[in-house]
Amino acid sequence: MRFSAFSLARNALRSLDTWTPHWRDAAPKPAYDVVVVGGGGHGLATAYYLAREFGVANVAVLEKGWIGGGNVGRNTTIVRSNYMLPGNVPFYELSMKLWERLEQDINYNAMVSQRGVLNLYHSDAQRDAYARRGNAMRLHGVDAELLDREGVRRLAPFLDFDNARFPVQGGLLQRRGGTVRHDAVAWGYARAADARGVDIVQNCEVTGFLREGDAVVGVETTRGPIRAGKVGLAAAGHSSRVAALAGLRLPIESHVLQAFVSEGLKPLIDGVVTFGAGHFYVSQSDKGGLVFGGDIDGYNSYAQRGNLPVIEDVMECGMALWPGLGRLRLLRHWGGVMDMSMDGSPIIDATPLEGLYLNAGWCYGGFKATPASGLCFAHLIARDAPHPAAAAYRLDRFASGRVIDEKGQGAQPNLH
Amino acid sequence: MRIPCPHCGARDVQEFSYLGDASAARPAADASLDAVAEAVYLRDNPAGPHRELWYHASGCRAWLVVTRDTACHAIHAVETARAAAAARDLTAGAVR
Ligand SMILES: Cc1cc2nc3c(=O)[nH]c(=O)nc-3n(C[C@H](O)[C@H](O)[C@H](O)COP(=O)(O)OP(=O)(O)OC[C@H]3O[C@@H](n4cnc5c(N)ncnc54)[C@H](O)[C@@H]3O)c2cc1C
Ligand SMILES: [Zn+2]
């Protein structure tokens, strides 16, 4: 079914059983041109762009659980392109442009909401760093505005401007940044890929690889072997484990990131606000809950739940920035497992094994990358050449010294 | 999470800082570039028991090697990094 104002109105007047499933629950076929491992946002987007941009529709997406159960459904939904380093700026801006026309492209309401992302600064040095970042963005045609204290006060009057330790001096605003409904991104790409013939296979875990010499020619799964011309890995927090099945070691550690939602409130905060003096960021969902988070737990973990010290730290940062938060009740909190790469930047590249391609290392910032990641990974798989916007995301950049370290922290995943 | 420090007893994880996989050993001075890149950047990253380095910054300030299950946070063993290094040198046949 295609969505339009007319189809919505017509179905609203009929009984609800006229709605049809958004994608087929496909059973795996014995062979495909391309198998994508991982039915998160990146895997589904890859399959969609393979079919739409590159005419490769004999594709399966294999998901060990259910679509949207991974990080695509666990993140805090923030999208932005306020990066500074040359390898990153064009990629994240391509992603922002794809977000801006996503709903028309896939005929699905993903609630793309460009409500603005505001990064606060609290010291002269931080202001200078943000001025530099904003200039780098504008040089690449990305929107950025440096606000002073009064500019911030107009947008977010409820912040603690007189905090003695971390006075709010101003902020870097990207108005085109904002939020996107994360579940709808997974569902929308799944539906659009399915409509172009892609098989979306849920409850199908990849447990090994079919090999012919050094070439990968398919996968072993809990639903039997599946042959494939090419295999693309998009397993987010579990990339190391899937790659290990092929004998590969990656420059990645898995760490947990937690997120929090408050009770529902009337509209209170317009955009996304991040605290520059500690790790805390907050926005309000369309249901009214404040959505916020902070640091990763900082040690290797696949537990998909965090520990209390980080919760305490996030709440302390939140209170320092916005004392009114103390009046709210916390409704839910959860954790997700992320691929923290050794330089904090992603990897989209072929592997040393013929037929095996890698999309990994998205850290805590991969949701915003979903459309561009899908497009660039599809380009790499279909053409055997990197997409120009993702040409820096090489697997060998660590050995060759071309790391992309936005934070300048060195090979310390827990500090990125 | 609490880490049982051999010197200080079980202490809150907040007292410690983390340095990652303890098996990533410093390569020899004349090691190849590939071996250096591997030691600095590549990790096994297992879901299960993991030997890792923790520094007891707010306690005895010793470096520890903690064997922790990354799938459930259970801690199986803790030894000082000094003891772990001595054991490694012994198995490598080093003269001390
Ligand atoms: C709490 C939290 C907040 C975040 N906030 C933001 C944010 O505000 N903005 C932002 O840009 N990013 C954010 N991120 C990061 C972002 O969510 C991730 O980087 C991104 O979603 C990862 O890509 P994905 O959607 O494809 O991953 P996933 O949805 O995790 O997809 C990977 C899939 O692979 C499947 N899989 C794994 N192993 C196998 C196997 N062997 N066989 C078959 N399937 C397998 C998994 O089940 C999973 O569904 C956040 C992350 C977390 C955890
Ligand atoms: Zn101690």
Low-confidence stretches of chain A: none
The number of E-state strands of chain B comes to 6
Choose one word for the global shape of chain B: globular
Helix content of chain B: 10-25%
Task: Give structural attributes.
heterodimer, A: 416 residues, alpha/beta, eight-stranded mixed sheet, B: 96 residues, alpha+beta, four-stranded antiparallel sheet, two-stranded antiparallel ribbon, 2 helices, 6 strands, globular, binds flavin-adenine dinucleotide, binds zinc ion
At a glance:
The complex is a heterodimer of chains A (416) and B (96). With 416 residues, chain A is an alpha/beta fold. Chain A contains eleven helices and 18 strands.
Describe the structure.
The complex is a heterodimer of chains A (416) and B (96). The mean pLDDT of chain A is 96. Helices cover 28% and strands 26% of the residues of chain A. Chain A has helices at residues 5-13, 41-54, 89-100, 102-106, 124-139, 149-155, 182-195, 239-245, 308-321, 370-383, 397-400; strands at 31-37, 59-62, 78-79, 117-121, 145-148, 170-174, 178-179, 199-201, 206-212, 215-221, 226-233, 252-264, 272-275, 280-284, 289-300, 330-341, 347-350, 356-360. Chain A has 11 helices and 18 strands. By secondary structure, chain B is of the alpha+beta class. Chain B contains 2 helices and 6 strands, in the order βββαβββα. Chain B has a 4-stranded antiparallel β-sheet. In chain B, strands 1-2 form a two-stranded antiparallel ribbon. The longest helix of chain B has 11 residues, at 81-91. The mean pLDDT of chain B is 92. The A-B interface holds A 238, 240-241, 244, 249-254, 298-303, 307, 309, 342, 398-399, 411-414 and B 1, 12-14, 18, 20-21, 33-34, 37-38, 40-47, 50, 52, 68, 70-73. The complex binds flavin-adenine dinucleotide (FAD) and zinc ion (ZN). Residues 5, 7-8, 56, 59-60, 62 of chain B line the site of zinc ion.
